[in-house]
Amino acid sequence: MGFIGARCIRYAVSLFFIVILNFLLPRAMPGDPVMNLIGEDTMVTEATLAALRAKLGLDLPIGAQFWSYISSLCHGDLGYSYHLNGQVLDLLLPRMGWTLLFTGIAVVAGAAIGLGIGAFAGWRPERTGSRVTSVLSLAISCTPPYFLALLFLSLFSFRLGLFPFKGLYDEPTIGSIAWHLFLPVLVLTLFAASRNILIMRGSVLQEGGSLYALYARAKGCSDRFVLFGHVLKNASLPLITQVALDFGFIFSGALFVEIVFSLNGMGTLIYDAVMGRDYPLLQGALLIIAITVIAANLAADLICARIDPRLREAGR
C-alpha cells in the first residue's frame, strides 16, 4: 500500500471515531433540548412535550438516532437547527467563512514569523536578541488565547480607543473588515508564532550540530548558506507538523476569541448551540472543524513526505 493510501485509511478511521464522539458528546450534556426550546417559563402538557420529542426524533432509542444521523450524513444532510429554524449547512457556511478568514491569516502569518525568527534564534542562541525572543515566546505561548484577547481588548479598544470592540464591520468594505479583525488576528498570530518560534529554534539548534552542517562549514560555506541551503529544510519538518496540529488548536482558541470580540463566526454559533442544546447545529459545527483539522494534517503529511523521502518509506 502506498504512502498516500495508508495515510487516507488512517485518517478515515479517525474520522469514523470522531463521528461517533460527535454524536454522543452533545447527548452527554445535562439538560433537555425540548425544554430549552420552549423555555422554562412556558407551561405545556406532557402530551405536547412528547409530541415535540417525536417531531425532533428524540423519542427514538439512541441506536436508531445514531443510524438516522449516519444516514443523513451519507446524503450530505447535517440536520435542521432546533433554535435557528434552518438547515445546519446553510447556517454554518457563512459563519465558517469568517472564522476561516481570520484563523487562516493567523496560521499562515504565525508559521512565517515562527520560521524566520525561530531559525535565527536557533542559529545564534548566544545572542541577547535570541534569548529575549525565547523568553517572550515562552510567555505568550503559556497564555490562553482568550486571556490575551481580553488584555488586548481592554488596552487597545476600551482604554486607547484604537480599534472597535465588537463586530465584523461597520460597512462591508475591506478597510472596515480589516480594522475590526486586526485585534483578533493579532492575538491568534502572536499565539501561533510564539509556539512556532520555540519549535523552530529547538529544531535549528539540533540540526545545526549535525554532521552535514559541520561538513558544509568545513568546506568553507558561509553561515547564511549553511542555514538556508541545508539546515532550514530539515529543521522545518517539525514546524510543518506543528502547524497542522496548531490548526485545530487555533481553531478551538478562535472560538473563545470570537466570543470575546463578539464576532459572528463559528465560535458564537457553537456557544449558542451548547447553551440551547441544539444537537444538530453542534454536531454539524464540530464535524466541520474535525474535517478541517484532518485535512490540514493530511496536507502536512504529504508536504513532509515530499521534503523527506525517508518518511514515505517509513510510512508504507
Automatic annotation (TrEMBL):
SUPFAM superfamilies: MetI-like. GO terms for cellular component: plasma membrane. Keywords: Cell membrane, Membrane, Transmembrane, Transmembrane helix, Transport. It is a multi-pass membrane protein. It is found in: Cell membrane. Its main location: membrane. One of its GO terms (biological process) is transmembrane transport. It holds the Pfam family BPD_transp_1_N. The chain crosses the membrane at residues 12-29, 98-123, 135-157, 177-198, 243-261, 281-303. The keyword Cell membrane applies. Residues 96-300 form the ABC transmembrane type-1 domain. Belongs to the binding-protein-dependent transport system permease family. This is ABC transporter permease. It comes from Methanogenium organophilum. The lineage of its organism: Archaea, Methanobacteriati, Methanobacteriota, Stenosarchaea group, Methanomicrobia.
